[in-house]
Design a protein that fits this description.
Elements: H1 11-22, H2 26-30, H3 33-59, E1 63-67, E2 87-93, E3 102-107, E4 112-118, H4 123-134, H5 137-150, E5 154-155, H6 174-177, E6 182-187, H7 192-195, H8 199-219
Antiparallel strand pairs: 1-2, 2-3, 3-4, 4-6, 5-6
């Protein structure tokens, strides 16, 4: 079967998420299974297929995509609304690295956000990352991130309030040492880019801008056997 080219999400996708946000309950949801399939899931999977091809072209690595569940896990949450009112998709490279950097796509009723990185380092990865920041690479990594920020990218706040033990409190890269993961974000403002027929091109351009983070984290796999 010939694949129909993906030409952007339709306004119906945004409308569905807005309606779900207004009526976030099982009764409303259960009567709209056809809408969910046609306006939410089907275009999301079409986008994912096309985007994995672009990421393969950009990185030389095959990628797998994951459309996150619309059903919320409310077991340990005070918020018991049953459904997510956004669309989140991740793209993971096929690489021997146990916890490789991924690409992220987030669309809700108000904005479109793209990202790249690792949300949470595994224990050995975290040690390796801190070793890199504390060593000769620290200045280079800080400069890469600062350049991205100056070009409009965003970093979340560090997870730790205090610098880890073993490092000087006045370390020049103390903010990086307080991180337990590293992800960089590109906020595209409102949802108009998602509705545009050039969405794939826009995402490719933004991901290409964030690729230095992908590269520096992927290189970390070569350092996982550093003795401590």
């Amino acid at each position: 079967m010939t694949q129909i080219p993906f030409t952007g999400f339709s306004a119906c996708t945004i409308t569905f998420m807005k309606q779900l946000k207004a009526d976030n309950n099982r009764d409303w949801f259960q009567t709209r299974k056809k809408v969910i399939e046609e306006d939410y899931k089907t275009p999301a999977l079409a986008f994912s297929t096309t985007m994995t091809e672009q990421l393969h072209s950009m990185t030389g690595l095959s990628h797998t995509s994951k459309l996150f569940r619309i059903h919320r896990d409310v077991r340990f949450s005070k918020d018991k609304t049953p459904y997510n009112t956004h669309m989140h998709i991740s793209f993971t490279p096929e690489h021997p690295m146990a916890n490789p950097p991924c690409w992220f796509f987030g669309l809700d009723t108000e904005k479109l956000t793209l990202g790249c990185g690792i949300f949470g380092f595994e224990a050995t990865q975290l040690q390796t990352f801190r070793s890199r920041i504390d060593g000769p690479e620290g200045d280079e990594i800080a400069a890469i991130l600062q350049g991205l920020i100056q070009n409009g990218a965003r970093l979340d706040e560090p997870e730790l309030k205090r610098i880890p033990s073993g490092y000087a409190k006045d370390h020049p890269h103390e903010a990086l040492l307080r991180r337990k993961g590293l992800a960089v974000w590109s906020d595209l403002g409102d949802v108009s880019a998602a509705l545009d027929k050039y969405l794939i091109t826009t995402c490719r351009t933004e991901f290409d801008n964030l690729k230095p983070v992908f590269d520096l984290l992927l290189r970390q796999d070569q350092r996982l056997r550093i003795p401590y």
